[in-house]
Design goal:
Elements: E1 4-9, H1 24-35, E2 40-43, E3 48-55, E4 58-65, H2 72-83, E5 90-96, E6 103-107, H3 116-125, E7 131-136, H4 147-150, H5 159-179, H6 181-188, E8 190-191
Parallel strand pairs: 1-4, 1-5, 5-7
Antiparallel strand pairs: 2-3, 3-4, 6-7, 6-8
Helix pairs in contact: 1-5, 2-3, 5-6
Length: about 200
Amino acid sequence: MENIFLIVGLGNPGAEYAKTRHNAGFLLVEKLAEQWQSNWTNERKFISRVAKAERNSQKVLLCEPQTFMNLSGESVGALVNYYQLPLGKILVAVDDADLPFGEIRLRKSGSSGGHHGLESIEQHLASREFARLRIGIGRKDSSRQIADYVLGKFEAGDSELLKKVLERAANQVETWLASGIEKAMSQFNGVVDSTNEEK
């Protein structure tokens, strides 16, 4: 079996959803593809955009499901089954309204926290034992009805912090690939310093 890692960014396809808070996962894998000079292709059999890269002699697949958020598991399940991927080599990047904007948190496993994209993946993989990198987007108030907020675009004043958040999250993914999840969690989980550049 090939040594392949799968990094999934969750979001909604289509121009109207580009750069929205709910597409934070898409923004991260797009940043990684740019850093790694990987080209996106539309893979109809996986209902996904897929970019392939090689890092430290390891093959990496970047994935953006094109199913819309609530059906993300269809794409992830198809990729996992086709490549026979073990759960320990899967990382899903996702927005999280329960984390403040400017904070990231990688975990080995866990609950969906009510995130429909994660729920769909858990259902299709019949497991919660895959890594998830939560990118905090915060929330305007305590209301659970936050659809308008998460589907809204990041504001102009958010751009500098968003850039730093994505840089830190990309570094965390690189560390996960190179050194494992424990080091990636201990080194990068937490609040991004909005005043200083990341090392």
